[in-house]
């Protein structure tokens, strides 16, 4: 869409959020809500003797359907292909209520909070519909998003906290998959080296590594000069676990990073370059022009990332589940940081409680 058309649509009073250039990532949301049904309604629900059928089973089905149809009920909600929906109604005898939990997950450019809330609301309304013949004095309350994860903001948890039944589904805070590892970051840019351009990608790359627990022991900015880069890399090999460069991976005459890494030798790891290109290509088609590459030399993993801030962010998102495993293997250790997706897809209480 050209700038004129884009500015025209920005003036429209109602429009969906533009996620055209966002990268797909894993998304998950958990929501909950409650319906007070009174003593008569609670007993009939528990004994599964309501006139219209089993409220708990139908609530699960309705919740799944509600999540899938959220976009049809909410005008500005993006239609999403959901990878998983799980709904769990739980009897609370003390308050004579039914608590509904819903977990929704997918890989997409936007979150699934509305789908999780739609699942809870559909389940609660179904319980309402099936219970009202025996007790019309029903109250739906406490519907809220408990947690969402994915995208740039990572994990968000409701200020009111997480219900005990959902604790096992919440990502553990303080996970540092690169703890105990050391790294060096090298930025390749003629302009940044000359001081005419501020280096954003190098600090962003270092920050990402530090957030994962890695100690960044060296940061430098070099011009796009093959000999200087080779000298810098060779000086660092063996002193750190990881060397990451940013810049010089394109097809311009001064983009020399891949040639330097290739002539240094070592063991090629072509899959890392492939994952960097393929992960970004869906929203940045020019990613296919990148020559990002990786090698292992003397137990040091060397990876060349693109020079843009977006390229670094997308690249680290794609590499984050692979780096701890790769570094463990290079050290001939049993990988300690395998990524278990079972919690992401609502396993645990959502499945085991059935």
From TrEMBL:
Where is the segment annotated Disordered?
334-354
Q: Does the keyword Nucleus apply?
A: no
Could you tell me which SMART domains the record lists for this protein? MoCF_biosynth (SM00852)
Keyword field contains Cytoplasm: no
**Enzyme Commission number(s) of this protein:** 2.7.7.75
**Span of the signal peptide:** none
Supply the name of the protein. Molybdopterin adenylyltransferase
In what residue span(s) does the MoaB/Mog domain sit?
A: 184-326
Q: List the InterPro entries.
A: MoaB/Mog-like_dom_sf, MoaB/Mog_dom, MoaC_MogA, MoaC_sf, MoCF_biosynth_CS, Mopterin_CF_biosynth-C_dom, MPT_Adenylyltrnsfr/MoaC-Rel
